[in-house]
Amino acid sequence: MKKAIQIDEKDNVATVTDDVKAGEEVEVLSPQGEVILKTKLIDDVIFGHKMSLRKLKEGEEIIKYGEIIGVASKEIPVGEWLHTHNVNSARLHTPGEKVRGVT
Amino acid sequence: MTQFYGYERPDGSVGVRNHLLVIAPVDCSIEPARKIAEQVEGAVAVTQTYGCRDDSMVVHNLVGTALNPNVAGVLIVGLGCETLTGDILMEQIEPSGKPVYNITIQEEGGTISTHAKGVGILQRMAQEMGKIKREAFPISKLTLAVECGGSDATSGLAANPAVGVAADKLIDEGGTVMFGETQEMTGTQHILARRAVNEQVGKDIYSIIETQENRLKAMGVDSRWMSKGNIDGGLTTIEEKSLGAIRKGGTKPIQGVLFNDWKRFDKPTKPGLYLMDGPGWDVPSVTHMVAAGAQVVCFTSGRGSTTGHAIAPVIKITGNPGTFAKMRDNIDINAGTILDGSESLNSVGDRIYDMIVETANGRLTTAEALGYKEFIVFKRSREAEHMLGHC
């Protein structure tokens, strides 16, 4: 089965390590290598991109590396692809080709 | 408590290698210094290419390298008329109690006489240093530098977090870790500052990142922008991008920022994690951190890299299984096992930690075994810093 990796135990997202199609099941591994979730993906998610590990409310913090990497710009169900279309920088966001960082 | 076997120096520091350092303080003596070092077992020449001005940023790097515990003894080979004289370096190296010698080509009367004298000095030092035995010391005597270069999408996912696990473990055992490349911290100053041990360290973190952003801005570059390639690769925000790089330093509190300018060259003063305000490319960054006292380096590379260092073992780690297969002779550890789920992140981190200890005990890295001895001094432009109001 295709895998996704949770880098820090506090993370609410995981990174897929293979190209995964919508409807395909992935196994999410914790830093200890335990399977913490098996779920079907809602979207196609390609290698290196992120999926949600739980339902996230609009405005909720997105945690990766145990730190806040951004904020959900809409409600995100489990197994959805997370990227610039549903996550904003917690500091400053310019949608489109380029994402602007902090002040 | 983990132990390692190292060489104790007169100042109480512990080396993991027993090198003799030949310093060319000026570019005019680079070739004679190299030829002298080539003649003697265990000797290595380090050089700088900023002319002969007595520039303290250059002096910090050269003196710092000589003071690194991986160095047993020092020979300075100068031309003779340089402003940055061997005496200036000797004065700062001698308090360590290491043997230091200083010769100049003009004084000795040409390179053949200088070569004979220099080789003679090194030969005697080499024989003497062979008597120093490796003894057991607590791992708390170890300072690790972490670096990344030739990154790809696996760096932030596998190699950097795994090195971070090893860095955390070393700090839990009382050791010291440093990482640099200030420009890669952009967008995470608020996150790093939250990990600072006190308010001053937090302010220092904001200050070095802002200063670096200003330097890049002066060159017409806004370091806060992510490229299309970054976004296509799956990075959503600048915070995420920078966190992928700094995760190689682990998750521990930040004890301090190590500044390097014309006035100061900071080294860690107690165990724990430090940020080095240093250059954003590999070899000068490693040179800089080894000059600040790191005896061992962990270097992550997704695309693959070959570089070592003149006096410090550089352990290469890739998170990309394809790179590991293709560049086996340049990579020490495959962290790519995380990607197919065959090994956990923590297990790879443990393997890296074990490799750090084995390397400290004397196991040669791929770069060492191939004889790679990179050393590049980084110096800022004083004129540019002055115009930017940084000095």
Tell me what you see in this structure.
- The complex is a heterodimer of chains A (103) and B (391).
- Chain A has strands spanning 2-5, 13-16, 25-29, 35-40, 50-52, 61-64, 67-72, 81-82, 87-88.
- Chain A is mainly beta.
- Chain A has a single domain, classed as Archaeosine Trna-guanine Transglycosylase, Chain: A, domain 4 (Roll), CATH 2.30.130.110.
- Chain A has a six-stranded mixed beta sheet, with no helix packed on it.
- The radius of gyration of chain A is 13 Å and the shape is globular.
- The model of chain A is unreliable at 93-103 (pLDDT under 50).
- Chain B has 391 residues and is of the alpha/beta class.
- Chain B has two domains: 19-131, Response regulator (Rossmann fold, 3-Layer(aba) Sandwich); 137-369, no CATH class.
- Chain B is built from 15 helices and 14 strands.
- Chain B has helices spanning 30-39, 56-67, 86-93, 105-108, 111-129, 153-172, 189-194, 199-218, 228-232, 238-246, 282-291, 321-326, 345-361, 366-369, 382-387, and strands spanning 3-8, 14-15, 19-24, 43-47, 71-78, 100-104, 135-138, 143-148, 176-179, 254-258, 272-276, 296-300, 314-318, 333-334.
- A seven-stranded parallel beta sheet of chain B has the order 10-11-9-8-12-13-14, sandwiched between helices.
- In chain B, strand 1 and strand 2 form a beta hairpin.
- In chain B, helix 2 (56-67) crosses helix 3 (86-93) and helix 6 packs across helix 10 (238-246).
- The radius of gyration of chain B is 21 Å and the shape is globular.
- The mean pLDDT of chain B is 95.
- Classes of the chains: A mainly beta (103), B alpha/beta (391).
- The A-B interface holds A 3, 5, 7-8, 15, 17, 27, 29-34, 46-50, 62, 64-70, 82-84, 87-93, 97-102 and B 153-154, 157-158, 161, 165, 186-191, 224-228, 231, 233-234, 236-240, 243-244, 247, 251, 338-341, 343-347.
